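Sanity check. The docking grid for beta-D-glucopyranose depends on where the pocket ends up, so I'm generating a full predicted complex first rather than guessing from homology. Inputs follow.
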Amino acid sequence: MLRNPVRALLLASALSLTAAPVWAFEAADANAWLTRHDSRVDALLKQMTLEEKVGQLVQFSTGQATGPENIKVDQKDLLKNGGLGSILNLTGAKEVNEIQRVAVEQSRLKVPLLMGLDVIHGYRTTFPVPLGLAATWDAALIEQTARIAAIEATAEGVRWTFAPMVDIARDPRWGRVMEGSGEDPYLGRVIAAAYVRGFQGSDLSDPTSLLACAKHYVAYGAAEAGRDYNSVDMSERMLRDVYLPPFKATIDAGVGTFMSAFNSLSGVPTSANHFTLTTVLRDEWAFKGFVVSDWTSIAELIPHGIALDGKTAAFKGFTAGVDMDMQANLYAMHLPELVRSGKVPERMVDEAVRRVLRTKFALGLFENPYTDETLSAKVQLKPEHVALARRAAEESFVLLRNERAKPIEGSPLLPLADGKTVALIGPLADSADDMLGEWACKGDKKDVVTLRSALAEKLKDKLLYAKGTEILGTVETGFAEAVSAAEKADVVVMALGEHRRMSGEAASRTRLDLPGNQQALLKAIVATGKPMVLVVFAGRPLTLAWEAEHVASIIHAWHPGVQAGPALARVLFGESSPSGRLTITFPRSLGQVPLYYNRFKTGRPIGGEDDDQKDSGARYQSRYLDEKNSPLFPFGWGLTYTTFEYSPVSIGGMKSISLADLENGAKIKVEATVTNRGSRAGVEVAQLYIRQRGTSVVRPIRELKGFEKFSLQPGESRTVRFEIGKEQLAFWNVDMKHTIESAELAVWIAPNAEGGKPAIMTIAN
Ligand code: BGC
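Predicted complex below; grid placement will be based on this.
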């Protein structure tokens, strides 16, 4: 029997790191809340004029703009006339109550407003950016961060977040890789569901429940050349195998809303894509919540070229399946007339309004439209919220490399020993604002403890500090001071990387090296010969090939949030051990991208990472003349302060299993024993991968199908066990059926996507 994912999760958090949940993606009854109030919805709908109905499908921003500012309307006037259903970007209980009062007390039907905001990785208590949170491989932890974000946001009148962003992203040039969980659809599903449960909680009508929104539907993360908003052209198989599953997982977790995207998909913009918005979302998945457009994406159907005017854009967006128009004002302007002229049936409008109203009823907004104005001061940045921010940051750090400072002497440089003089150098060492990361919501740099302040508190006068340069620096006048600080110290900690606005929306890059002259500064300090730890802050993978050759220890710290400094200080000095693992591949050089672990094998593989043999060096094979094919750091990679040994993976002596048995629910039981061979306790993430060959279509060279995160004492062992059944083996075959096929099956239990040796068996007809 499949375990209930919520129960499994509770169990996992109760046991802390001792047991991993079994992630089952059964389509439970998580969506039942959506239709619970339908008799009230229908009664209200009957009283509404066409204009009032369309008003429920209109959304405008107040205050800050999160897209091009295109329109100004008198929102209070609109509200009085029932012409506005939702507002985004307004916060503060008092401010929200004031506008809500207009809707609830001055409009004819008193339909409350739904207030939305991008609550992405925390509200005031800022957690690591989502790509960093994903690196924790800890769904229970991620769920808790989302719950805290919901508690803080709802105290300020916000009841709807435009999160989680569940776009699979495989191109680090795209700035929005930072907002998601990386390149893998399995992990993407686990994490997507965790966010939904955390934001929404168990009961939508609880005042701390924050309605979630799965975005950006769909394939936005595959933007060509990594340029934001760019078009996407992909096979339906790739869409269904890789890009759709995290969205489906949010529905199974009970998500209330979806957001359509900016990109076109195989020629049809995703905000007017009937196939994805209606055939898949409504007909196949039976989603009962509503779909909001992205910011002006209905109007953008005109520059996309599938509409020449606003009326056609409104018609195409609405009839494809977008229920609510964010910020374009085209539904308000054209839907009533489109209905009156018979082009859009009124029952389509009714259905869209029904979806919006059922959500407002479920949230309890009709009964409790107002927010307690004394609440916010009590819940923001509570000590337990800040404590979780520190823990999340600690678990998000990925130790990419940890060598001896001098090639033949001593042990790996990290953790640092007490009593040493440390030179802290670099433009990110004391940059509070950048620690918050992009989409930091109400994050405030005043709340941030930087690495400099945390180390100053710990080391007192044994800390030397020099900024060295700016993040995008061009002048080298600060280098001399930095070199002199390094020379006086026993060890150097460099804090380099991207500023927060270099990732996120509209933040694509064509270079992924350290920005500005930071690498020149690094080279100057490396030349001093001092032992060095490099801490990289960035919202994406950077190309760190030179750094990986010349620096003993490298920690990728993402943008870690309000507790950046204390979390890093603890990890640097070994009070806690790094346990993050990459969820996105780090390329050696930009020319390799997109580079992701679950790629297909070519007909001319070079060996090595492609087929477990050595690169023969022969010509006419799939390779570059000037670079290896393999990544610098693969998916799943991350070191800690001990080492783990894996036994060979066992499939219990099984040579073969039949398709019929798998169809009937039989499982392949696989296991491996992991032993801590070092002298310190440490956390490992054991990863289950499979590969199928002999199938009707090409399958990836590896696919993640499970993982378990656990802690081991020195010398301690743990046997990790997984089951592989139909759910793990099914894929979209040559006839576009989601099915299992006869195949040769390889199974790994390994520390990352390149490690380990597989066990092989067959799936027989
Ligand atoms: C972004 C969305 C966001 C929306 C509202 C858009 O520009 O693409 O992710 O939710 O703005 O702020």
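Relevant for the grid: The chain has three domains: 119-363, 397-572, 642-764.
Also worth noting: The chain is about 30% helix and 15% strand.
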